[in-house]
Design goal:
Blueprint: H1 8-15, H2 20-39, H3 48-65, H4 74-96, H5 132-152, H6 155-165, H7 170-177, H8 181-199
Length: 200
């Protein structure tokens, strides 16, 4: 960004005053980030542009909801809103198709919450950081965690975890996957151990 270009926060202030040019400039500035985030995911029955549109909706929400008085930069807040919107679209689509939720892991919930242990989000650095080096390290840690979960969890563990994060109880999960409740409990215990192993 050159010295003459307004900051994200300045553009947001202008957008809230009805400046359409500022809105166009901000969306153009974040278009590549949205496309990059959308490229990381797959939505059954849709193409890449559908996820890009969801990401742009997340960016719009970030503009509407951003509070400049908080410590997080707009960029960090926008990245979070864009990713959440894309994951929400995937979650809704898979629920409608009644398919197992085993293609992604939600970062907004955790099977460890009930025990008062760390959530998945706790394993990442806070997004409210000003140091670019810390942002990069946090992003690398996040990517390593996702890669670890994709390889460490078995298909059944991913399926059980996905259903649990979607609000199903152990008995409901057992009925849904046609397995004994004890098998569901065992799968969740393995997931917890693997997450604890990663965090350690």
């Amino acid at each position: 960004m050159s010295m003459r270009e307004p900051t994200d926060e300045q553009l947001i202030a202008r957008i809230r005053e009805g400046d359409g040019e500022a809105e166009t400039l901000l969306y153009e500035r974040y278009k590549q980030l949205v496309r990059s985030r959308a490229h990381s995911y797959f939505l059954i029955g849709a193409d890449h542009e559908d996820l890009v549109q969801e990401g742009m909706l997340g960016l719009y929400k970030a503009v509407c909801e951003y509070d400049g008085n908080k410590a997080a930069s707009f960029k960090s807040f926008a990245e979070l809103c864009i990713t959440r919107q894309i994951l929400s679209a995937i979650k809704n689509a898979t629920r409608k198709k009644h398919t197992p939720l085993n293609n992604y892991i939600s970062l907004n919930s955790s099977p460890l919450e009930a025990q008062g242990e760390l959530t998945l989000l706790d394993t990442m650095r806070s997004m409210r950081v000003a140091d670019p080096e810390d942002v990069l390290i946090g992003r690398e840690n996040f990517e390593r965690m996702i890669q670890y979960l994709e390889t460490a969890l078995s298909p059944m563990e991913r399926r059980v975890l996905g259903l649990y994060l979607d609000g199903f109880s152990y008995p409901q999960i057992a009925a849904h996957i046609d397995r004994p409740q004890k098998a569901v409990d065992n799968a969740m215990q393995r997931v917890k151990r693997k997450l604890e192993g990663f965090m350690n």
